[in-house]
Amino acid sequence: MRPQLHPLSFKGSIDKLQQSAPYMKEDTTFQLLLSSINEKVRLTETEMQVCKSFFTPKKLLKKQLLLQHQEVCHFIAFVVQGILRSYTVDAKGNEHVVQFALEGWWISDNYSFLTGEPSTYNIDALEDAELLLLSRPAMDELLLKVPAMERYFRILMQNSLVALQRRLVGSLSYTAEEKYTNLIRTYPDIAQRVPQHQIASYLGIKPETLSRIRKQLTSR
Amino acid sequence: MRPQLHPLSFKGSIDKLQQSAPYMKEDTTFQLLLSSINEKVRLTETEMQVCKSFFTPKKLLKKQLLLQHQEVCHFIAFVVQGILRSYTVDAKGNEHVVQFALEGWWISDNYSFLTGEPSTYNIDALEDAELLLLSRPAMDELLLKVPAMERYFRILMQNSLVALQRRLVGSLSYTAEEKYTNLIRTYPDIAQRVPQHQIASYLGIKPETLSRIRKQLTSR
DNA sequence: GCAGCGCCTTGACCTGCATCAAGAAATGGC
DNA sequence: GCCATTTCTTGATGCAGGTCAAGGCGCTGC
Known about the structure:
The structure is a homodimer. Chain A is α+β, with helices and mostly antiparallel strands.
């Protein structure tokens, strides 16, 4: 069985995190991030501390925008708690969900972040969320001070690339029903926490079609 | 105008290369690779020499396979000359072109290369080709000896990620005709050098449909 | 020169999903 | 608890692109 690959990141367990006491707050915020990093590269205790210092915590309410179309994306965001989505609005006015990000995933507009050009995406919260932001200057400095992070980000990029390539081939070769059943098999938590019409948008089908597909599936 | 981003790489000029005399062979083989690297990171003269030593030249005839489905992908390949494609065959027996690679582009199955799992892709040559292969152990050693290459590959990955994300959104929001006109606008050389039915496969449409679209377009 | 094959075109018909329209359920604010 | 809004369902109809089938054109090899 192949290990799962997630766009821009991996999915870490958060069970412990949610139960932990309030005075642990500071630690638990970074715990998920550090375990994500540790899964891919070895950092010394000091490097981890340095790392932490470059991130800015941020809270977001449901529906609140983190990034708006035509703004420059000045950060990449690590999701500590909640769900975010990035989406575009095409020439015909249709929204297309590009990515969901749950706990332990990264989200941003890479293109805008890297080039400084205005973004073509919007990013907002589908649930109240807690994030750790890494700004462009912070990232540049972090990579200088902790070169191992260069490797971490390369691995992230490669994993997302692979996941995205699969999604693309899937979008070309599967029927709407197959796309949906693949999704709920691969990311059952998304299917449960995200409204159906958002999932439809992610899959590139209409909410009506998804509704009919679900009806079909339950009747079997 | 946005700089173009190419899946897994960039497109470098090869005009000079093709005109150069035979005794320059050795140099011209690496020239394109080095200029690709220099565009993204600064290497010392020594580092460039070290870099070269890790690559293995390889020639491929038209239709020859570089990687076969279910083999492990032991390399990433830089295209010096010619055109390659990677493709999958889905459950219904349909081929899907995942990527084309022209001069100056990289091609491989990243997933298989990174994890050592058997590949789900095939890679073959659409024209006689000249490649530079970087094996997994060679890459690991290269990254140790020339850490700047870590950055080069991260940038490559990020660029491909961005390009792939656009392609995905495009595959969801554009009509077949829009997808085709986008392709010939973005990569006119692909449209000219690659047979139509391969392009149709890349776009996720049938050759018959592409033929009809082209007829429509010329009649306007 | 022509046989054979790969590639492209054209026509007739079919189908999966979109579109449009109208309610029904669920959710949330106060 | 009740109204507003958001989300989901269902039905009727349309169309982009797929499928199947046949034929043409231009290589390449002998």
